[in-house]
Amino acid sequence: MPDPGLLFWTTVIFLIFWFIMSRVAFKPIATALKQRETDIQNALDEAKKARQEMANLQAENEKLLNQAREERSAILKEAKEAKDEIISEAKERANAEYKRRVESAMQDIENQKMAAMVDLKNQAGQMAIEIAEKIIRKDLANNAEQVAYAKSLAESIKLN
Amino acid sequence: MDVKVFQKYCIALIFSTLSVFAYAQGHNNHDGHDHGNGSKQVQSGEPSQVTGQAAEHVAPAHTAGEHHEEFNAGENAVHHISDANAIHIVGHTYFHLPVILYQPGKGFTFTTSGVFHPHHHGNGTMAHHGFTMAGGNVMRIKDESMANGEYAISDIQHEDVTVEGKTKTVFKAVINGTPYELEPKSTYDGGILGGGITNFYDFSITRNVFTMLLTCLVLFLMLRSVAKSAVSRRNEAPKGLQNLIEPLVTFIRDEVAKPNIGPNYEKYMPYLLSAFFFILGLNLIGQIPFFPGNANVTGNISVTIILAVITFIISTTSANKHFWEHTLWMPGVPAVLKVLILTPIEILGLFLKPFTLLLRLFANITAGHIVILSFVSLIFILGKSGENMTGSIAGIGASVPLTLFMMTLELLVAFLQAFIFTMLSASYIGAAVEEPHHH
Q1: Taking CB atoms and an 8 Å limit, are B209 and A6 in contact across chains?
Q2: Domain edges within chain B
Q3: Is 60 exceeded by the pLDDT of residue B27?
Q4: A49 to chain B nearest CA, in Å?
Q5: CB distance B187–A36 less than 8 Å?
Q6: Which DSSP symbol is given to B333?
Q7: Which of B50, B102, B131, B181 has the most C-beta neighbours closer than 10 Å?
Q8: CB B40 within 8 A of CB B428
Q9: In this model, does residue B111 exceed pLDDT 80?
Q10: Residue B275 confidence (pLDDT) above 90
């Protein structure tokens, strides 16, 4: 049976409950929930983005690493080539230098040989002239002496 | 693991058994008490009263004070689900409540239910300024000679009287050997259900009002603490009570408000949540079989009327042009049909919707309480009100599992009805604020 007292009190209590609870509890809770949901969504989005970025970064790193590796091997290859080239060049140069040195030494030897020959020839000529001069001068006095003298001359040449 | 589960079952069984006894206790005491009450009456009354008292005991078949009366399960259940001016705790101990009475022309009377010294069945043993208690409710002594002062009441009798084909229970208070007729408080049922407007209105803090206040206080403290931690811990994971309340709030928001009301749901959230928690809190507190629970608040039609009326007011005041057009003058239907059939039906529907809302909640909760009380009554029916011990034990054997089952079901119903009330309120509001679709 609808009872006026209970109708009255229910109205009063429920309206006050509604009024107070919406201010004290339901609105703050709704706001907090909404905010938390937004925060969570944002955090998830950010995490997704960060993951994406991480993946990108990793891919880039990988790429860089590969590039570096390639570069390294290229450099190594180049260095090896350069080394070989330098070595072969050095060898060639050394060979050439050696040849040149040998040649110039030969030349020197030849030159000095020639000079010595010339000198020898000159000295031999000089001696021959001197001998001839002395022979000629002795000849004039004695035959026998002349021969002996020639012999001594000839011996003196051998001493040289 | 299995041991734990077993322990849980044991605890549940023990508690449900306890609850049966908590319900049952009052009745054991009633039967045990009646003798004591009789002797007290002899002591307190004059010698002439003793004969009057004895005569009352012999004469009518329906006196409440009669010993070993037939146990009436229906009456017992109705007594327990009804509102009362004092909360029965155990035996003759009552939790007394403020009594505020209004008599047109005489003004207000403020007192407490303690002045009536209620004993068994909530029957007063004292009359105070023309009022006493019968069956837990404050009643007025019709005789004006009793309007002032205090009188000892030796007995409260009740008789079923049939007037114009309607059966009405008439209570009488026996004072100094003379039975005085009592009249109940005014009720707005137009006399259909045996009530009607009488000479006074009861604005007391009754058991139901007290329970409502208590529930609101508990809810206030719980929800405020949740709101506080939700705000202060906004950048942290929810903790403790937050994990209990917040899912309910999000459930109402996402499953009830958003799909039914649409984009403007936020405006109606405080009402929906208030209604939900109010009903849920009262349903759950009503499941507690002992003080301070046990009150059948959401099973009281006065409470559901107010909730349904508020839903009705909100939905009709927020209704837009589109809603009124579709209700009063449905486009695309011949005018004759509109005037004769559609519009009257729609207008009727407007009022039927909140009516079903109030009836559904009232009926479901009341039915649950009645079923539980009936199962508990098995103990007294089979035990013949304590005369047959074997029957009582058999009754307990039958009653405990049935009551346990029913209470579990009622726990579900408590949530379900709170949800359904909120859901339907949201759908009525949603229908009222729906934006026109372009066909």
Answers
A1: yes
A2: 12-205, 210-433
A3: no
A4: 21
A5: no
A6: S
A7: B131
A8: no
A9: yes
A10: yes
Query: What is the C-alpha R_g of chain B?
Result: 26
Q: Biggest alpha carbon distance in chain A?
A: 195
Is residue B360 a contact partner of residue B420, using CB atoms and an 8 Å limit?
A: yes
Write the CA distances from A40 to A63, B241, B345, integer angstroms. Answer: 34, 20, 49
**pLDDT, position A68:** 94
CB B229 within 8 A of CB B239: yes
Sorted by where each begins, the domain ranges of chain A are 11-159
Q: Is the pTM of this model over 0.90?
A: no
Which residue in B204, B301, B306 is closest to A14 by CB distance? B306
* Residues listed for chain A: 160
Residue B7 has pLDDT above 80, yes or no: no
Identify the CA nearest to B146 among candidates B191, B199, B210.
B199
Quote ipTM for the complex: 0.80
B131 touches A at CB < 8 Å: no
What average pLDDT does chain B have? 79
Give the span between the Cα atoms of B56 and B49, in whole angstroms: 10
Give percent of chain B with pLDDT exceeding 70: 82
* Cα distances (Å, whole numbers) of residue B289 to A87, A143, B15, B375, B411: 106, 180, 10, 13, 13
CA dihedral sign, ordered A89, A92, A95, A101: negative
Q: Which of B172, B167, B169 is closest to B192 using CA atoms?
A: B167
* Phi, psi dihedral angles at B86 (to 5 degrees): -145, 150
Measured distance CA(B67)–CA(B215) in Å, rounded: 38
What is the per-residue pLDDT across B372-427, written as a single tens digit (0 to 9) for each?
888 888 888 887 766 777 778 888 888 888 888 988 999 999 999 999 999 999 99
Q: B200 in the Ramachandran plot: left (φ > 0), alpha (ψ -120 to 50) or beta?
A: beta
Dihedral pair phi/psi, residue B234, rounded to 5°: -70, -20
